[in-house]
Design brief:
136 residues, CheY-like_superfamily, 5 strands, phosphoprotein, Sig_transdc_resp-reg_receiver, Response regulatory domain-containing protein
Amino acid sequence: MSDRQYTVLLYSDDPEVRDRMRLAVGTRPAADLRVEFVDAASYAECIRLVDDYEIDLLLLDGEATPSGGLGIARQIKDDRDNAPPTCVVIARAADRWLAAYAQVDATLVHPLDPVTTGQTVAGLLRARASGASALS
């Protein structure tokens, strides 16, 4: 696999949560992957960035208010034929059923573990690059 740079959109209304997501992913979630980040603090900003830029992965805060990451994930999946893979960070593992309903490709649980986060992000980016369906 090439050393391509991917764009990851980080969404949360809380800048500290976005910083924690950025640190957990890092600029190199795997040796062969480089990541740059774009930040969205609101629903409108998130949708605008998805519309205006080539986003390779959405990393959304499921606990954001007033628009949670699960609702945004579902809307993007419903509105776009070729939506980027979506990973939602949730507070409780028991909320994975909501993530399944929202058609997210992966979930992570607060607090983020850097190893698990990097592996999840790398898997989603590799799947997108190969044209395969994202992780379940």
